[in-house]
Amino acid sequence: MTDRLLAVVTGASSGIGAATARRLAAEGYTVICAARRFERVHDLAAEIGGIAAGCDVADPDDVAMLAEAVGDRLDLLVNNAGGAHGLESIADADFEAWTTMYATNMLGAGRVTSALLPALRAAEGTVIFITSTAAEAAYEGGAGYNGAKAAERMLAGALRLELCGEKVRVCEIAPGLVRTEEFSLVRYHGDQAKADAVYAGVPDPLSADDIADAVAWVATRPAHVNIDRL
């Protein structure tokens, strides 16, 4: 496919994923931009000289096609696909939304990692999980998202232990409050006023580019340096 370093970024159609794909391309990677919204990743891939892959991480067939597109070697996997849906209390929980969050944030990351692990092993590559400070502690209305991100954290931790002694680095980046164009809007089902209220009183929240910068820093450390969690 290319002699350049190869990276996969899931959830690359917007926000942190799109910013990460751009930043990694600037660092010299050929980036496979993977997301459900193929039109968006097609345009992004054209912009950065990458490769577009339509992929719903919750769909085993899509993930199998992504693995086929990657081939035998992969230098970097960024498990970014996920998101939050709803902010209801447990008493009023929307368990379908909880299922969706678990299917993308945890099961999706696990499915993609498992499928691409042979290629990562062949390249002595790096896996980065984008979790959240929601994995650190519970908050009102956050049980579903807290649980999904905490589960993804456990996935990263277990993988690190399972690969102990192999030359595959497993890293976790847990952003705090990041303002992107879609995250809170999706969480509040398109209610722009509620989405904007999340950032009220925060004059300078983190941006997608800030997280992309962290991803690039972690990915480009010397091979003997492993950032377990940032």
Index terms:
8 helices, globular, 15% strand, two-stranded parallel ribbon, 8 strands, 230 residues, 6-stranded parallel β-sheet, alpha/beta
List the helices and strands and how they pair.
Layout: E1 5-10, H1 15-26, E2 29-35, H2 38-48, E3 51-54, H3 60-70, E4 76-79, H4 95-123, E5 126-130, H5 143-162, E6 169-173, E7 178-179, H6 183-187, H7 192-197, E8 206-207, H8 208-219
Helix pairs in contact: 1-8, 3-4, 4-5
Task: Describe the overall structure.
46% of the residues lie in helices and 15% in strands. The protein is built from eight helices and eight strands; from the N terminus they run βαβαβαβαβαββααβα. It has helices at 15-26, 38-48, 60-70, 95-123, 143-162, 183-187, 192-197, 208-219, and strands at residues 5-10, 29-35, 51-54, 76-79, 126-130, 169-173, 178-179, 206-207. The strands form two sheets. A six-stranded parallel β-sheet has the order 3-2-1-4-5-6, sandwiched between helices. A two-stranded parallel ribbon has the order 7-8. α4 packs parallel to α5 (143-162). The longest helix has 29 residues, at 95-123.
